[in-house]
């Protein structure tokens, strides 16, 4: 049964955030809010977490997982970014964007695209997510909480707990965070390719 964490959207309770972070360190899979929509998240090196996310969402091995990072310094440990790409990403973060970039050796092979050796990264503009990332001290391995056959992600914490109670370990609820996923920009070849139009404005990348 999933543990339910009721978190204030503007002033996240430090004790609750610490409990969520500790659960993640102990290999918990959680559903949590972001600045675009709810996501599934687990510890960076959690094979069990990855397998469970794949099973819940019915994903194949070509799916790009996302490393949700606290800031640009953390993001830079996990992907290679040249100067032009750096400026483009810096101008739009934090925000509702996911960037696909070549992975560094810090990224476990099981997270990388099997052929391209790339991974998704993002820096969310969300108080609760940022509090959790600060407490955790490392990125969250994440994937949008979009269930098979559904056109929109789930938006209510209580609804997520009700439906996924036996397949996730915790649900962080800080209110509705919308249904539109991130805009995905692929920079793996150096030029911006818009993979998915979402919550982030794509004008800069067109």
Automatic annotation (TrEMBL):
Protein name as it appears in the record: Translation factor Sua5
YrdC-like domain boundaries: 14-200
Taxonomic path: Bacteria, Bacillati, Actinomycetota, Actinomycetes, Kitasatosporales
Short name of any one Pfam family annotated for the protein: Sua5_yciO_yrdC
InterPro entries: DHBP_synth_RibB-like_a/b_dom (IPR017945), Sua5-like_dom (IPR006070), SUA5_domain (IPR052532)
Lineage: superkingdom: Bacteria
Gene Ontology MF annotations: double-stranded RNA binding
Gene3D superfamilies: DHBP synthase (3.90.870.10)
């Amino acid at each position: 049964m999933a543990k339910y964490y009721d978190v204030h959207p503007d002033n996240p309770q430090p004790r609750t955030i610490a409990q969520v972070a500790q659960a993640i360190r102990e290999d918990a899979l959680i559903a949590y809010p972001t600045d675009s929509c709810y996501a599934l998240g687990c510890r960076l090196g959690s094979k069990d977490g990855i397998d469970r996310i794949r099973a819940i969402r019915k994903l194949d091995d070509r799916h790009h997982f996302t490393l949700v990072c606290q800031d640009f310094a953390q993001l830079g440990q996990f992907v290679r970014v040249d100067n032009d790409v750096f400026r483009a990403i810096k101008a739009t973060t934090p925000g509702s964007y996911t960037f696909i970039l070549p992975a560094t050796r810090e990224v476990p092979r099981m997270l990388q695209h099997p052929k391209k050796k790339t991974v998704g990264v993002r820096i969310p503009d969300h108080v609760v997510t940022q509090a959790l990332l600060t407490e955790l001290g490392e990125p969250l391995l994440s994937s949008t909480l979009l269930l098979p056959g559904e056109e929109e992600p789930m938006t209510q914490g209580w609804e997520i707990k009700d439906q996924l109670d036996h397949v996730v370990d915790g649900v962080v609820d800080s209110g509705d965070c919308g249904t539109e996923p991130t805009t995905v920009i692929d920079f793996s070849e150096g030029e911006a390719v818009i993979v998915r139009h979402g919550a982030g404005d794509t004008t800069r990348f067109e």
